[in-house]
Amino acid sequence: MGRKRARYSSSPPIHQLFLLNVCLQLFDGLATYHGLQLGWQEGNPLLHSFMMRWGVEWTLLVFKGKACLLLLLLHRVKREELAIVALAVAAGCYFFFSFLPWLSCLVFLTPPAS
After folding, report:
1. How far apart are the C-alpha atoms of 76 and 74, rounded to whole Å?
2. pTM of whole model > 0.85?
3. Among 105, 26, 98, residue whose Cα is nearest residue 64
4. Is the predicted pLDDT of residue 23 greater than 80, yes or no?
5. Of 108, 15, 63, the residue nearest 100 (C-alpha)
6. Which of 28, 90, 24, 108 has its CA nearest to residue 36?
7. How far apart are CA 56 and CA 53, in angstroms?
8. Could you tell me which residues come within 8 angstroms of residue 46 by beta carbon, excluding any fewer than 6 positions away?
């Protein structure tokens, strides 16, 4: 009897970085939604303009969905070394420029600096 092939053939580091990036996207979307419910302002002018047209929920769903789709495409790229670097850089950027600021604002319930 042969062994079953794994569903994902990618190495553990790329898979872990992919999942980390998806979790950071979800956190950013939920934190943005929660922050806006508290009366805080969206800092990204592009997202802010779409929120005025489409509403907060649709804008976050579309933009976070697009980001997750791009992460999936990056995860499936043939040059795994390049994908690992790109996913690590993306995770670092979201960690330092989204996760930490939102986490500090939500923990202390202080609005982010404009």
Report:
1. 5
2. no
3. 26
4. yes
5. 108
6. 28
7. 9
8. none
Q: Residue 5 pLDDT more than 70?
A: no
Q: How distant, in Å, are the alpha carbons of 81, 86, 92, 95 from that of 100?
A: 27, 20, 11, 6
C-alpha radius of gyration, the chain, whole number:
17
Q: Is the model's pLDDT at 10 over the cut of 60?
A: no
pLDDT score at 64: 97
- Token digits of residue 19: 């999942």
Q: What is the rounded distance in angstroms from the CA atom of residue 50 to the CA atom of residue 47? A: 5
Measure the CA–CA gap between 12 and 14, rounded to whole angstroms: 6
Q: Binning pLDDT at 50, 70 and 90, where does residue 110 land? A: confident
Q: Which amino acid belongs to residue 13?
A: P
The amino acid present at 54, given as its one-letter code, is W
Q: Using CA atoms, how far apart are residues 101 and 81, in angstroms rounded to an integer? A: 29
Separation between Cα atoms, residue 81 and residue 35, nearest integer Å: 36
